[in-house]
Amino acid sequence: MDSSSQLLLDGRTAVVTGAAQGIGFEIARSFAEAGARVVIGDLNPDAVTAAAEKLGGAQVARAVRCDVTVAAEMDALLADAVDTFGSLDVMVNNAGITRDATMRTMTEEDFDLVISVHLKGTWNGTRKAAAIMREAKRGAIVNISSLSGKVGMVGQTNYSAAKAGIVGMTKAAAKEMAHHGVRVNAIQPGLIRSAMTEAMPAKAWDQKMAEIPMQRPGEVDEVASVALFLASDMSSYMTGTVLEVTGGRFM
């Protein structure tokens, strides 16, 4: 964003979970560039500290180790934002993991873990952020779902269920929070180029590419810009929406 661009989040404080790398880090970076002070939470303390340094250090970004499945740790993450920067204006629930396996071979532990991190983690982030935001009578919550939550993917009964659940949760929370001035929206990314997706077998990659009308994967900044839109006043009359960032895959 060049200096003539409007600083969409100037003076605001944003929390982004799972932001040590990938889409989460890029969202945090785009928010910082748009004028926000950012608190990033991640399970890996070394990675999240390094990420905060990359974003510009203490004036701009803070790193907090956080397990999103534990309500007390989510409380601590959000309290850090409010105590350090004075407000909580934007919450992005991005933390997630995959434990892919067919339904026949998936362990109960891998089902529970994926549901817990994505679904319970997003619920913790949404409810805890909403409790703070409703006092200020304003705020924007952005939940990261996935195209897998729309269409269901082989080997992802756990992940598809969790990501579909995030959509239902987002809409329910949006209805509860609308009259408090808090907006809740979701993003469903498709195939986005990252360390995780580039580790895919070539055959799987090619199969996914064949399904994309734009004939290319998305880049992390193409998800981050949509998150910035939903976090900012540019989307002030939008709540309970699900924006697909997929290159037209599975329309």
From TrEMBL:
Tell me which UniProt keywords the record has, alphabetically. Oxidoreductase
List, alphabetically, the Gene3D superfamilies matched: NAD(P)-binding Rossmann-like Domain
Q: Which domain of life is it from?
A: Bacteria
So what EC number does this one have?
A: 1.1.1.100
Gene Ontology BP annotations: fatty acid elongation
A molecular function annotated in GO for this UniProt entry is:
3-oxoacyl-[acyl-carrier-protein] reductase (NADPH) activity
Enzyme class, one word? oxidoreductase
Ketoreductase domain segment(s):
12-195
Q: Which SMART domains does the UniProt entry name for this protein?
A: PKS_KR
Protein's UniProt keywords contain Protease: no
Q: Name one Pfam family in it.
A: adh_short_C2
Has the keyword Oxidoreductase been applied to this entry?
yes
Entry's family note: Belongs to the short-chain dehydrogenases/reductases (SDR) family.
What PANTHER family does this protein's entry cite?
Answer: 3-OXOACYL-[ACYL-CARRIER-PROTEIN] REDUCTASE, CHLOROPLASTIC, SHORT-CHAIN DEHYDROGENASES/REDUCTASES FAMILY MEMBER
Protein known as: 3-oxoacyl-ACP reductase FabG
